[in-house]
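Table S4 entry, Membrane protein.
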Amino acid sequence: MAKKNKKTKKKMPLAYKPIGFALGWTSGTVAGMAFQKTWKVIKKEDNAPDALDRDRGWGEILLAAAIQGAIFAVVRSAVDRAGAKAIERSTGTWPVPDQGGRD
């Protein structure tokens, strides 16, 4: 039994990669939508400033970047954690090595 469990633990990170990729893509999409809605509430504008937008000031551009980064990090962490917990519940094995994570 210990031998089988060891093999499962070695194979799980590789098997989780496509799932992790799909979760990452989904979390990026959700984070982008959440940021657009948040920006619309904050500034009453449909489009957030781009770093190369000549008509926007430094403060507005950096504020938008900070908000976008924070939302992305929270959504990504929530989706990654939910996915890992689902894998653990269904297989009994955590999907990455003990000290592992994406970062």
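The first helix runs from residue 2 to 43.
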